[in-house]
Design a protein that fits this description.
Elements (H helix, E strand, L loop, with lengths): L3 E12 L2 E12 L3 E6 L5 H8 L5 E8 L2 E2 L5 H5 L3 E4 L11 H8 L11 H10 L1 H5 L10 H12 L6 E5 L7 H16 L3 E5 L3 H7 L2 E6 L2 E7 H5 L2 H8 L4
Parallel strand pairs: 3-8, 3-9, 6-7, 7-8
Antiparallel strand pairs: 1-2, 1-4, 4-5, 9-10
Length: 241
């Protein structure tokens, strides 16, 4: 297994009076795609938000590329080349696709200053981004908004891309396009952490997997091993894939 880019050790998170994460432990190997699976309410989204500093861990340690980021604020974590695509995508509906992309390109003041070679690579991954470049983002379909959200996250080079349920509500053809894009991103050297409910999506993409239950990690291993063990699937997820 590759060395760990991201490590969570005994991470607890409280939100108000609620104790959501109960000692979460797992690693995200460098250069791989790690899936965070589990039933609804298991703590997956809370884990992602805690990694990003949107919610502060009340105990435990989060390490990124050898650095303790447990107490860093979100802006500082993002500056370490970590990008996060939330479940609601965070698209600015009244801005154009171009303006959404420009907001994420920290080194560019205008679209003309954006890295043209990188943009062409993104357009190859997500043709809809180029097609609707000057259209209001709010007019895009759900699948096109998801493509824009991921494209915006990678408009600058990233070490780690964190995405919450990228296939949710998407048509099968769009899901296939998204799978291809994530495969190409991984091949380019980007480490990816995904929360996903679509098990076929997970099965086709995942290298390693952490399965959560009741705010803790109940299983870690390879996606291939989980996909081949129906008894383990039923035990952890309540279904067979």
């Amino acid at each position: 297994m590759s060395d760990a880019l991201l490590t969570l050790e005994g991470v607890h998170t409280h939100i108000g009076a609620y104790h959501i994460l109960h000692g979460v432990d797992f690693v995200v190997p460098r250069g791989q795609l790690t899936l965070l699976l589990g039933r609804n309410g298991a703590g997956k989204t809370t884990t992602l938000r805690t990694v990003m500093g949107l919610w502060r861990a009340s105990a435990g340690r989060i390490t990124f590329d050898g650095r303790d980021i447990t107490r860093l604020d979100t802006q500082k974590i993002a500056s370490l080349d970590v990008a996060y695509v939330p479940e609601n995508m965070g698209i600015f509906a009244d801005l154009t696709v171009k303006e959404n992309m420009l907001l994420a390109a920290r080194g560019a003041r205008t679209a003309a200053h954006m890295d043209r070679q990188r943009l062409q690579w993104i357009f190859h991954l997500f043709p809809a981004v180029e097609k609707f470049w000057n259209h209001p983002a709010g007019k895009l379909s759900g699948g096109q908004k998801q493509m824009l959200a991921v494209a915006r996250a990678i408009v600058e080079p990233r070490q780690l891309l964190i995405v919450d349920e990228p296939s949710k509500g998407l048509a099968p053809a769009i899901i296939n396009n998204m799978i291809d894009a994530f495969q190409q991103l991984k091949a380019s050297g980007v480490t990816i952490l995904l929360v996903e409910q679509n098990i076929n999506f997970a099965k086709r993409l995942g290298d390693t997997v952490a399965v959560m239950d009741n705010g803790a990690v109940a299983h870690t291993g390879t996606m291939r091993a989980l996909a081949e063990d129906e008894a383990l699937q039923r035990s952890l997820l309540g279904l067979a894939i």
